[in-house]
Amino acid sequence: MRRSILLVLASFFVIWAVEALWLSPSPPGDLLWVMRQEGMLLTGILALGAMTAIMVLSLRPRWVESPLGGMDKAYRLHKWLGIIAIGLSLAHWVAKQSKSLITTVIGSAGRLAKVAAPEWVGILKPYAKTLGEWTFYALILMLVITLARRAVPYKRWYWLHRFMPLAYLSLVFHGIVLTPPGYWGGVGGWLLALTMILGIVAAVIQLVRDLRPRYPHTGTVLSCTQLGDVLEVQCRMEDSWPGHAAGQFAFLRLAGELEAHPFTLSDADQQNHLVRFHIKQLGDWTRGLPERMHPGTVVELDGPYGRFVPPDHDDGAVHVWVGAGVGATPFLSWLGQLHDDGHAPQACLQYACQHALDPLAQALKDAVALHPDVHLDIFADGRRWSPKEVLQRYQADKPLQVWFCGPATMGRQLEQALKQTLPSASWQLHREHFEFR
Description:
Blueprint: H1 2-23, H2 31-57, H3 65-68, H4 71-97, H5 99-106, H6 119-147, H7 154-161, H8 164-178, H9 187-211, E1 217-227, E2 230-237, E3 249-254, E4 261-264, E5 274-280, H10 284-287, H11 289-292, E6 298-305, E7 318-324, H12 329-341, E8 347-352, H13 359-368, E9 374-379, H14 388-391, E10 400-405, H15 408-421, E11 427-431
Parallel strand pairs: 7-8, 7-10, 8-9, 10-11
Antiparallel strand pairs: 1-2, 1-6, 2-5, 3-4, 3-6
Helix pairs in contact: 1-2, 1-9, 2-4, 2-8, 2-9, 4-6, 6-8, 8-9, 12-13
């Protein structure tokens, strides 16, 4: 999927370059003015292409999971495409603002002549310029809020993010009106038009979903158990629930609410429409769940998603599973499924938490007790986990398979240590990227 998106953006660039440098006659004007116009065109096209990919990914299409390795990877790509799109928009804005600088340097005598355009373009042009500029400022604000996630509450970011389909449609309007009329007749124009149509369809679908919010699977809460700062929730889903693989997650929403959050399904699928979550109370939404969620509460799920599934027990590798905090939940699900299947690989499960009495640590102890081939090592009460705990498990004659679910900083430290210490062909790291903001 990443290669496909990069291929689309590269296609825009190549087609633009071919048309601008070879097929189209050189426009009469000084080089700086020509560079300004072509720079505005190229950055605008690439930004719109990236934003179209963002709109498609925001729909959570299931077909992206296989090429990307899970919906969590799709959200990560969504985030970086957003940063790329805003960076390209900034370059587009800088090219637009360079008019006065170029005039100061070489004067306006060599400026490109205005191209004849349909009458409706002249009527809509002022509106397209103003709308595009203010949308650009809004995107800059969104980027700042996204990067400053600790300073801005999630709820505010969530509501601002819901306006993104409208922002996209305003930029499409900006592009339709201000793209040079002659560009639409070439291959680049056709590709741009198809991209816009795809993005418009995705944006409209997202707007309809926001106006009529309903997740595909409905269920009822059977029990809520407070385990320290973890809320264990069990739900019975209706017949539409397709079941789930161990390690997958779903977006959970209370009926009547708009806000939804992703949580790992922490049990194995028993084909009985029962699902369980262990929800760490880290933010305002999760801390308020005990007051709003009770037996009988109706919930809605979107999922299951994810490819963080149990490894093959016959692959001959050294298995190390690393979890931290609520990152224990996929391994709980794994252990349940492996017990049902009757086999589990030899593995070392390393779990980091603040205290040994952590409820998830106890749940892991109970689950591991059924698997003699799985060794549990808990790091708590001053005993800190570090990447060396994984590196010590390396055997030169066997590949090392590492599975990690936990804080992003901890995951980056682990990946860096593996890269710096072990031969690249001797290990593989599987990560759950649970950063959806």
